[in-house]
Amino acid sequence: MKLLVTGGAGYVGSNVVWALHDRGDEVVVYDNLRQGHREVLPGSVRLVEADLADAAALDAVLAEGGWDGVLHFAALSLVGESMQRPFFYLQENAGLGFALIDACVRHGVKRFILSSTAALFGNPDTTPITEETRIDPGSPYGESKLMIERALHWADRIHGLRYACLRYFNAAGADAEGRSGEDHRPETHLIPLVIDAALGLRPEIVVFGSDYPTPDGTCIRDYVHVSDLAQAHLAALGRLDEGSVTYNLGSGTGHSVLEVIRSVERVSGVRVPMRIVERRPGDPAILVASSARIRAETGWAPRYTELDEIVSTAINWRRAHPNGYGNEG
Ligand code: UFG
């Protein structure tokens, strides 16, 4: 297949690019490199360094023709920041998402994969979360992804664009061969922060709240390995000829913040300095996915079912890249 991947130099995007590359697809990455890293891409993959807001650049790439599909990862993804700058998030994520879908329709692209999120569900009162769970985004970030999901619904109905909305829970880990790992600036995610505390790259991990209604009082999340997410994209792509799909993507198991810290300690052999502080505003107590639908419809199943395995790949990557991408001299 010939595929265009927006945000393909980012964390989840680059792991998907490698998976597509491994199976022999022709991949072009469209990325402004504000969050992405050129070095993470396979050498043979062409990078178009441009912003989604650059309508002429986007048009020029799509006008090359022959595209079997577009995979859309490029987005802002900080929930907290979206509460500070709601219209910036709605414009950047939803507005540019609409423009991309419109351009796809104009250029005859027939398949579209959206990087969506568990943030669509806000603070649900049932667990695990299925595709039928009530949607109620708790932030403009979640809302922006919901808006793109809805736009895709209309693009299919009116123009026949087949789409897959893939709602990731907590993407984690790194490519087992070390080809791609997690390097956000700033880093806000739990697992890389705990690892940095274990490796002495930061002084401690602060735990946001220990008074949640969970067994140990800390928040529970569903950590799904980024390579399993990548395989889910391949599975969804293969399913689109039968119709558009929406899937929740998790490992199906929840782990508390303290369990993540214990896992990093087990795998690294180092005690992690930690301090419990106030809750972080907006954090739901428990987010665990039911991925029964994608399992039943495509046969996909996560290969990384143990938290220690996920953490281990992330630690290996961090040890090899203690300064992240672009700073290794
Ligand atoms: N946490 C800490 N200390 C930290 C960082 C995180 O205790 O320094 C806790 C958080 O409070 C939360 C858990 O670790 O309970 C996981 O936090 P992350 O920031 O790693 O991930 P989130 O669950 O907040 O967010 C993820 C994605 C978002 C997505 C969201 C869906 O990063 O993009 O899931 O709810 F929107």
UniProtKB/TrEMBL annotation:
It is an enzyme of class 5 (isomerase). Its cofactor is NAD(+). Pathway: Carbohydrate metabolism; galactose metabolism. Gene3D superfamilies: NAD(P)-binding Rossmann-like Domain (3.40.50.720), UDP-galactose 4-epimerase, domain 1 (3.90.25.10). The keyword NAD applies. Its EC number is 5.1.3.2. Transmembrane segments: none annotated. NCBIfam families: galE. This is UDP-glucose 4-epimerase.
